[in-house]
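User: Second chain of the day. Same drill as before.
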Amino acid sequence: MRALTAGLRRTYGQLNDAHSTSELVERGIAVVFGVLRAGLTVQIALTIPFLLSPSAPQWWLAALTVVAAGHCAALVVAMLRARRMSTGWGVLDLVVGVGSLLACTALIPNSVSSWINWAPALLNQVAAFVPAWCRRPRHSIPIGVGLGALYLAVFLAHGTTDLLSVVENAISLPMFTIAAAAFGAYCRNLARRADANRQQAIRLATQLELAEYRFHVHNATGLLAVLARSDTPPALLPSLRRQAGEESNRLRNQLLRAHRGDVEPGDDDAPVQLGSVIWEATAGFGHLPLELPIALGRHALVSQKQALAMQAALIALLYNVQFHAQADEVTIHADLVDDTWEVTVTDDGIGFDPDAARLGFGLKIQVIDSLERNGIAVRLESRRGEGTCVTMTGRSAPG
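Assistant: Same format as last time:
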């Protein structure tokens, strides 16, 4: 009994160590069935003194009872150690249950109390345990039906005096199997779904992590590529090096924040003036032909999250101009009408086909997706040879 208690405590304590929900379900089934069979083991063992009564000892039946109790105890230990019921133990349990029914019915007279005849109680548990090792309902349910039919046939052949009780008990056997099979199938299906959802969440988290990593290194890789080219104009090198230094600091800070688990500023933090966001974003692009008519909208307020998204988007747009547009003039215009602000970034460069399916990572992810996630509408217009215009629109945050 000490081994049973220790095994039960160990299995129950290790339930949360399961590597999957399916494994956790099997462990839970093993614990529940282990407790049930441990209780039955005690009940069977308690009949042994009565079977060895000095007035009328029943040695054969007592020996069978010892064997059955030993089997039940061993089954409990095996289930708790393996944390599931194996097919081998299940088949052995089925054989012991059927054999006990046949033997007890033949050896125990009808005058003996039903509490002494433990075989029907064992067969009830055998029927309920079938779905634990025969996990397909289309296989386990016929076994339960067969046990019910066998029970009925044995007692009818033995000459029962209580036909109604025998029929009711025979019906209960497949009902135990069906109920256990239905509940087991439901739990296992639920566990499979949970495991599938967990794997999908891991895949999505990995994809999100890779996308975020690419989001942060996209500008830096573009700068490195330009700096590595031998045909980069020497006049641009000081500006490019300054931008590379700023990108290096930004990446370092971002990685440190991610390592510490710092939380991004919330929307309820102090709002930022739109003019400050634009000046901050354009600070490293003094070598570009920039025009900044932002007086009409510079006092508009945006949340901290919107400010970060806008600054990153403006920097990405200016990098696109610097690397690809070949523009002679770049204009960032800001306006505020009532509580709606608008910022446009216009260049007179080579332009491109603004098909959403062909947009590069910078425009699609760093500009459009990032701004829209933060409640800022984005409109992109471009034609080959006519330049590009990106319009950002949002509502001014309360001051």
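The first strand starts at residue 272 and ends at 273.

User: Great, on to the next one.
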